Amino acid sequence: DGGITQSPKYLFRKEGQNVTLSCEQNLNHDAMYWYRQDPGQGLRLIYYSQIVNDFQKGDIAEGYSVSREKKESFPLTVTSAQKNPTAFYLCASSSTRNQPQHFGDGTRLSIL
Amino acid sequence: GENVEQHPSTLSVQEGDSAVIKCTYSDSASNYFPWYKQELGKRPQLIIDIRSNVGEKKDQRIAVTLNKTAKHFSLHITETQPEDSAVYFCAASGNYGGSQGNLIFGKGTKLSVKP
User: pLDDT tens-digit profile of B39-88?
Assistant: First the structure.
């Protein structure tokens, strides 16, 4: 799945700070997703986008924001409103909805 | 909405034995069921998937079975090897409303294969 690139690999956030996680894909996929993974938990959906300039909230969207200005890019901003942001964040894409999702290598976010 | 339960949470087998992981789902409209393998600190990788129009699918040592009536599906790994050690996630994808195609994941099974 070398076609999905997440950066940075590790990120540290200070109190009151917004941070942005990058996700880029060169698979020409229409759909993109952001998941949060906590220890011992499955993946939980934060936001998803089916097409450029459109995105929808997932199950745990509070404290997060996204944009989809280009087909290949779907950045996630973790805002200061997210009080427990420490987690492993995974970006995924699929050709269309209900097709296999392929994941990036993830970004591990911690609090300073 | 969809809910996916996965069992067991941990599984330890001897090399060469078989391993079975089971998942149940709640929404009968779900029609796509992938399985992912995640090694420590790495990305989940799709290992096999099945759609609701078939009951079983095999790929070398890995197979998935689906029972739509009972709303459960299982992953079978035969002749396990130490490199099979990882966390395995099942997921179900619905076909309903605005969340069409979204995956709901189980909480994972940590498989350990002892040499």
Answer: 998 999 999 999 988 899 999 999 999 999 999 999 999 999 999 999 99
Is the CB of residue B8 less than 8 Å away from at least one CB of chain A? no
| Count of CB atoms situated within 10 Å of the CB of B16 | 11
Contacts of B89 in chain A (CB under 8 A): 42-43
Beta bridge partners of A44: A36
Tokens encoding B13: 């087998």
**Omega before A39 within 30 of 0, i.e. cis:** no
* Mean residue pLDDT across chain A: 93
Q: Which of residues 16-55 of A touch B (CB under 8 A)?
A: 31, 33, 40-45, 48
Q: Going by C-beta distance under 8 Å and a sequence separation of 6 or more, which residues neighbour residue B69?
A: none
